Amino acid sequence: MTISKGDVVAIDYVLRDGKGVQIDASAGEPMTYLHGYGNIVPGLEGALDGAAVGSSHEVVVAPHDGYGEHDPEQVKQVPRKMLPKELELKHGTELMVRSPDGNSFGVRVVNYDREHVWLDANHPLAGITLHFSVTIRSSRAASPEELAHGHVHGPGGHHG
Known about the structure:
By secondary structure, the protein is mainly beta. The protein is 8% helix and 38% strand.
């Protein structure tokens, strides 16, 4: 059986950066996703299209097919006084902020001094070439409801 659009696919994976440092892994339970609906990064989804259940793959995903290139415009300098006084600043601290139009989104502290803080709204993996080790555990046809909603329902479903 091979994977195609509309299949619910369960994979075991390990994700590493270009230096071989592990970033993420399915850790015990396979990750389940709806193939062909953009629920995983495009480069990995494309590499698994037509792959056989039971097969293993080493997939290298360039930033533009992963979490995007790092956009310097997404790094903003803000006055330190705009952040809560009790906030302990450290490189990599993640915060939720609200834009002027009321939308909340995540940012990371990438630099700071006494007067200013630099916040990065890029995805933490933006600009990084991703190295996936993947084994395809199973595949089944998606239910009509899963297809209509564009993601897997029930245990193990990935909503990414």
